[in-house]
Amino acid sequence: RGDLAESRQSKDASPVTDGEDIKRILKERALRLAKEPEASAQSVPCLEVLSFMLAGERYAIEARCVTETMPLRNLTYLPGLPGFILGIANVRGRILSVMDIKKFFDLPDSGLTDLHKLIVVRHGTMEVGIVADGLLGIQEIPKDSLQPSLPTLTGVRENYLAGVTDTGTIVLQAEKILSDDRILVNDEG
């Protein structure tokens, strides 16, 4: 037993000095690393989403639309805006409208605290900050697990729905929210 271990040790410990051996080993490693992982026959397309809390419910929005998240700070209130637009915030030199989708969806509102988070969402040229009660993190949701709606969802929320998971997370479509006529400002007229 000792001889076998000693034999292996000396075999493994011997340096490879032949240049051709080194090239061959490196080429084999490169080929192994370059292989794409084999797709399983049961792989299901998934949505990568950012989950967050609103009025005690779990919501999610596709991560591809989220540019960043941060604590809600330095909010400047502006008069004459719709009730669901809280004001503006300076985010790294960009002035963004801050939207409270609880008011947009007519959900119970408990007021703002320093614990609220800002989710910066972008679709095309439109970029808006959305207020969340708390962030839950990024997760993958199998697309085939999304149900069309829940009986408890009514009105405006259903219009922006991508689906509801079996755990009750409401997945929103950022594109539909950001293209809603109510949040677009038109100076003409």
Describe this structure in words.
With 189 residues, the chain is of the alpha+beta class. Helices cover 22% and strands 35% of the residues. A 6-stranded mixed sheet has the order 3-7-8-6-5-4. Strands 9-1-2-11-10 form a 5-stranded mixed sheet. A hairpin with a 5-residue loop joins β10 and β11. The longest helix is centred in the N-terminal third of the chain and has 16 residues. The N terminus is likely disordered.
Radius of gyration, in angstroms, nearest whole number = 26 Å
Q: Give the termini distance in whole angstroms.
A: 92 Å
Share of helical residues: 10-25%
Major β-sheet annotation: 6 strands, mixed
Poorly predicted ranges: 1-13
Q: What integer is the average pLDDT?
A: 80
Shape: elongated
H/E element sequence: HHEEEEEEHEEEHEEH
Give a brief outline of the structure.
By secondary structure, the protein is α+β, with helices and mostly antiparallel strands. About 20% of the residues lie in helices and about 35% in strands.
Helix-strand layout with pairing:
Blueprint: H1 2-13, H2 19-34, E1 46-54, E2 57-62, E3 66-71, E4 75-76, E5 85-91, E6 94-99, H3 101-104, E7 117-123, E8 126-132, E9 134-142, H4 156-159, E10 161-164, E11 170-172, H5 174-178
What structural keywords apply?
single chain; 189 residues; alpha+beta; 6-stranded mixed β-sheet; 5-stranded mixed β-sheet; 11 strands; 35% strand; disordered N terminus
